[in-house]
Amino acid sequence: MPSTPTTGNAIVVVLKSEWGISTGISDGTNTYELVSQAYNGDVNKIVSIYVAKNITGTATDITISFGVSSGYHQTIAIEYSGFAADPIDATASGGLFDDTGTTDVATNAFSTAQAGELVIVAAVPSATATFTAGTDFTLIDGNVESMQSLGVEEYGVGGTLSSYVAHMTSSATLNFSIAWASFKLV
After folding, report:
1. pLDDT at residue 161 in the model
2. Bridge partners of residue 167, in order along the sequence
3. Contact at 8 Å (CB) between 22 and 63?
4. Helix/strand/coil (H/E/C) assignment for every residue in 116-157
5. How many other C-beta atoms can be found within 10 angstroms of the C-beta atom of residue 167?
6. Helix count (H) and strand count (E) of the chain?
7. What is the torsional sign of CA 63, 67, 70, 73?
């Protein structure tokens, strides 16, 4: 983290790994919970979303451990304020793995429990691509240089979502793994 996090906030970690599932995330103080994870066996890529809620604002370094040392890893850590005490709401994962490919990287339909939630969507493509955020979303990361691609977007929901499908547009036709989670805010 570039600065000391604020006590009481939450840290969301989005992780893309190749050839290895994370065996743990630690900053020495806070507990990180796996919220959502998707795996694409065609290209051995995994995308995961973790959250540390109600953090103690002392740690500035996050360490991620893997059972396998090979492959590429990419991590994005984002600090948020205003998470509810028990923030995790809707979580799921999916993807397109049939080798037909698409430029519309989309979640399955999901609903939120209450108005005013934060939705995080993370996708790992099967090919080099850049991403554009979907309607209502802000792109956190989406400019990629190689097979180390990771597209991440967020959406601060005004109302309650019902059978909502989140989208990102890819610059290339591809298969993808996608994980998403919504978090209740106060």
Report:
1. 86
2. 106
3. no
4. CEEEEEEEEECCCCCEEECCCCEEEECCCCCCCCCEEEEEEC
5. 16
6. 0, 14
7. negative
112-136 per-residue burial string, b: 16 or more CB within 10 A, e: under 16 = beeeebbbbbbbbbbbebbbbbbee
Tell me the average pLDDT across 35-44: 80
Of the candidates 7, 178, 182, 152, the one whose C-alpha atom is nearest the C-alpha of residue 97 is 178
Query: Which sign, positive or negative, has the C-alpha torsion 35, 168, 150, 176?
Result: positive
Encoding tokens for residue 180? 């998403």
Q: Which residues contact 184 (CB under 8 A, 6 or more apart)?
A: 83, 84, 86, 87, 88, 89, 113, 114, 117
* For residue 146, pLDDT beyond 70: no
Residues 128 and 150: their CA atoms lie apart, in Å, by: 10
Dihedral (C-alpha) 149, 71, 79, 135: value to the nearest 10 degrees? 20
Residue 146's nearest CA partner among 132, 131, 129 is 129
**pLDDT tens-place string over residues 111-140:** 999 888 999 988 888 777 788 888 888 888
